[in-house]
Amino acid sequence: MAAHDTKLFQVHPHHRNGTWESNDGRYREYAHTLLAELEVLSQQVIEAFKDADAPASPDSEVQTIGRLRDRTSDTTRIFAAMAIEGFLNFYGVLRLGQVVYTEHFERLGLIPKIRQLLLVCDNLDIPKNHPLCKYADQVAQSRNSLVHPKAREVLGDPRNHKRSATSVPGAAREVVQAMEDFFTEFSVAVPEAKEYIDRLKAA
Hints:
By secondary structure, this protein is mostly helical. The chain has one domain. 64% of the residues lie in helices and 0% in strands. The protein has helices spanning 24-51, 61-96, 98-104, 110-122, 131-147, 170-189, 194-201.
């Protein structure tokens, strides 16, 4: 019988010497910066519509600002999700090492990744409805609706169809808040990780 190589893997301590490259702090900062820009743009759209004498044409200033507002809203939601995913990838590499994390954890879905990382690294068995999972899922679902767009067939008279819409800036506000709630909950669950999460704020 052929021999198979087996080896023990090591869970590294939270605070250990080394250098890691990650963009999660930058993404978190982008989400907040973009949300602030979105608030200004949203107000500009409201004011522009007040001043408009007629329905906006496709190339009008109102339409231009409106498109910029909507793009900023979408981008805010995407960067919030990237901040959470980036942090989890960093945390996994920090605690498990690059090779083990890449082979066994990196391709997991977001919620299984959270639960298995905490179980293996911190002996925490959190349920699927834990606030950490809830906030992460809220941000991920918002992002997925943008990067995995779906089409819907319009049945009946198209003139009676009301196009679906997302609240702007409401949706982006909720997602950024959920992102921050995720980081707060992670700090509560794993106090030793608070140092890394606080660094993200100042990135």
